[in-house]
UniProtKB/TrEMBL annotation:
Membrane topology: Multi-pass membrane protein
GO CC annotations on file: plasma membrane
Organism lineage: Bacteria, Pseudomonadati, Pseudomonadota, Gammaproteobacteria, Alteromonadales
Catalytic function, reaction form: L-proline(in) + Na(+)(in) = L-proline(out) + Na(+)(out)
Name listed for the protein in its UniProt record: Sodium/proline symporter
Amino acid sequence: MAVGTMVSLGLYFLVMLGIGWYGYKEADTSVEGYMLGGRKLGPAVTALSAGASDMSGWMLMGLPGAMYVAGISAAWIAIGLTIGAFLNYILVAPRLRVYTEIANNAITLPDYFENRFADNSRMLRVIASVVIVIFFTLYTSSGVVAGGKLFESSFNLSYELGLYVTAGVVVAYTLIGGFMAVSMTDFVQGCIMFISLILVPVVVVMELGGLSQANQVINNIDPAMFDLFTDAASGTTLSFIGILSLLAWGFGYFGQPHIIVRFMAIRSVKAVPVARRIGMSWMILSITGALMTGLYGLAYITQQPDVTIDPETIFIYLSQILFHPLIGGFLLAAILAAIMSTISSQLLVTSSSLTSDFYQIFLRKDASEGELVIAGRVSVVLVAAVAIGLAYDRDSTILSLVSNAWAGFGAAFGPLVLFSLFSRNMTRAAAFAGMITGAATVLLWIYLPVQIEGQSLSQWMYEIVPGFVLSSIAIVVVSKFTQPRESVQATFARFEDALHQQR
């Protein structure tokens, strides 16, 4: 590895650790301070933190890889995600910010569910926490896998070493600074990702002789690469079910704990529109850059004799070949930024759930604020260790790991979050039914040995579609046959009044 690249990466690691220390010094010592930043995030930090924690290593590796293989038909995922993210800011952000505070100052999503439905049995909180632990196990491992691939393909170091270095740095600043450090590092990492995803495709197109020449190269490879309705990898026309499955990625936003927790932490409802404008601008430009990297990266590779690469490493290859080592190091730091921003958010959400929803509820009901913060830090280390263990299975692609976890959260929590924020008559029983139905449908859809048209259920239709639909139906049906408690309806009325006042 060139000295310039090492210098760039070294500086990046130092900056991340420095921000972690700053977050530690600035954050208060309460549980709310460690896990939610005291609810005082500004709109810019909220927007880029949500975006960076959302667009993990899959945006710089998985999405360009999909574009590299399938052509612009892979853009359906990007379209669905963009629509979903926008609706998340409109429908969820302002309401969740107000309701979590009204609902006994809830600081985790399971905590919110319990307080929203006055669940004295606490089973709603426990089941939600189990869902978080299960699906974040898959999600976090995808980020660690991306780190291992990066170190192996870029630095000629072992895959296993990459796992430990990636997870180790993330654990360090998450452990020290908590939510505030995670959000601040996400902001910096989002800026790095944005610059890189603009720079790389622009330079590749210039190397190919301009946009017209680059498009001609792609057309010579396979005209289907420019067909939005054709999967160039298989040469088949996308079916309605196929397009729906790709667009359905957007449904997942409503139930992603590591993203919507930013809405709980923003300083006020009035700051949400500013965060939305910043976040959506960042997202559209970044995703466009990722797609162009994959498409024009293919054109560049075909002109290099005897070069074959893993499609998911096209961004890494281009950063090494086309740029000075110092800049190349910065671009590799962008991948680390994407990976680490998501891992840190997932570690914090999972550790928050383990601390507030298991440790405090079942083991130490009278634990002090300091003890709970320590428990949260221990949980960060434990979750990271499990993620590293799972990442030793290097055969799974980053996009497949992310897709399974994304569907699980989207189906289990998405309808539940939406109905809980908009329906006065939703009941506790309906919340149970919706969450269990969504999670179970996704798991069965992935693992049942059933085929349709020669494809597994998951290949035929993305599992979030049946999961989201059946979860929504379960919520509506069960709410029709059960009655919400009067205290819950009264709280909902207070929430609507508070929302109106804060807007």
